[in-house]
Write a structure and sequence with these properties.
single chain; 49 residues; mainly alpha
Length: 49
């Protein structure tokens, strides 16, 4: 009964910081780009201040 409501709520949920970081890292083109992105993530690019 509540399954459609749960699916709808899950679709509207904003991605967490960890999910955004993972998606950003997965978008890298090569090893150099990945290392650059990892440094940005380590510096807190996706973390709230």
């Amino acid at each position: 009964m509540f399954t459609p409501i749960k699916k709808f709520a899950r679709a509207l949920r904003a991605p967490s910081a960890e999910e955004r970081e993972t998606a950003y890292l997965n978008g890298s083109f090569d090893r150099i780009d990945l290392e650059y992105r990892q440094r940005q993530v380590d510096r807190g690019l996706f973390r709230s201040r």
